[in-house]
Write a structure and sequence with these properties.
The protein is an alpha+beta fold. The protein contains 12 helices and 11 strands. Helices cover 35% and strands 15% of the residues. The strands form 3 sheets. Strands 3-2-1-4 form a 4-stranded antiparallel sheet. A 4-stranded antiparallel sheet has the order 5-6-8-7, covered by helices on one side.
Amino acid sequence: MLYDRKAVPLVLLFFCVVHEIDRFFLVNNVYLRYHLHTIERRTMMGKEYVLMHKDVPVLTMTLTENHKIKEITSMIHEEHKPLNMHSDQNQESALYEFMTHRSIPYSRKNLSQLLSAYEAEDSLELSIKSYQLSVSDHYWVKPAENNLSWNDVNFFANSFKESSIFIREQEHVNFNDVTPNTSVNGSLRQMWIRENNQLLLMKAGNILQLEPFNEVFVSKLLDTTNICHVQYELRQIFNGEYVCVCPIFTSESIEFIPAWSVVGRLQKKANKYEALLAQCEELRIPHYRRDIDAMILVDYMTLNDDRHWGNFGFLRDSSTLEYIGVAPIFDNGNSLWYDQYKIPADKPFYTYRSQPFTTTHDKQIKYIEHPIVTLSIERLIEVVPELLRQVYSDHDLVTPTRMKFMEELLLQRIEGLKDMVG
């Protein structure tokens, strides 16, 4: 190939110049994006915000740069403020507690990817970018100068883009749409989806991937009783992973109030069970003891160790603020040896840990004073073997040996309930 030797340096110089121009724009684009994001954050943190309850303005506030409540600047409709703020706790602290409970916890495995996609510093900033909108309750946050209404933003009536970033661990995803999924509190990867005009919660498992299977098994087991519970089904998604899916139990008129906000701040040695019952009585929540006792019994039977104060609660009419009752039992995944590669068949039952009232199930079950009349021991014993085979047959870890242990131990646990069932 013939070429002009004298032209080579000029060609090289040309490509060097082009490379430097590209590099200049790339570096400065990153620099510009960083500074725009910083300005946006500072502007956001300097604004006054309104906490809304549907279309009712509850209070106004300002935030600090590290997303703490700087000041509640005005209280507008005190009767609508979050339940945990109806206490002698510092109001800014109580409001911050409320807002952090409606953001993704740091235990969520894919949180760093979500923060990167939304260019957010932390979970609270992430949720504020979507107005802290949730489909669990009807509170939301907006800038004071914003004219948006509940009808404009609520996800019961409005659609939202579904992105697998919330259920999968993905790198380098650009997604910043307003969504209810930035305000889903829970350590497992999960997201709301809409199918046939119904909202469904899709939730993945942890290391052993047993949680979705356990949710479905406990749901089917409770189908044989009259205990109010959320129904789950098992699905396999795009990457072959198994998840569980359940329908929403709130609506545009009914919201979920978690137990932590009802019970308030407990004294260290307080009887937590009695304290919660007293608050339920004061709030005139129907059938609270019957349904809380049923929950204790279900957790005893399935060895659930994750019934913390956010994993149960109450339903309330958001317009009248009247309580409808205890929410259906949900979040049963951390049960039935969900984190054990091998079931410790010789582990004494009295050592299994529980929440929220005492440290073990054998202690907690003693709070039940009246027989539970909503289930039949004989029926439970009858359905357990077949349900185990139906639900767990597709899980590689659940070998015939493991299933045999599960059946034997679960039947022992059910047999132990005979004195508590009417």
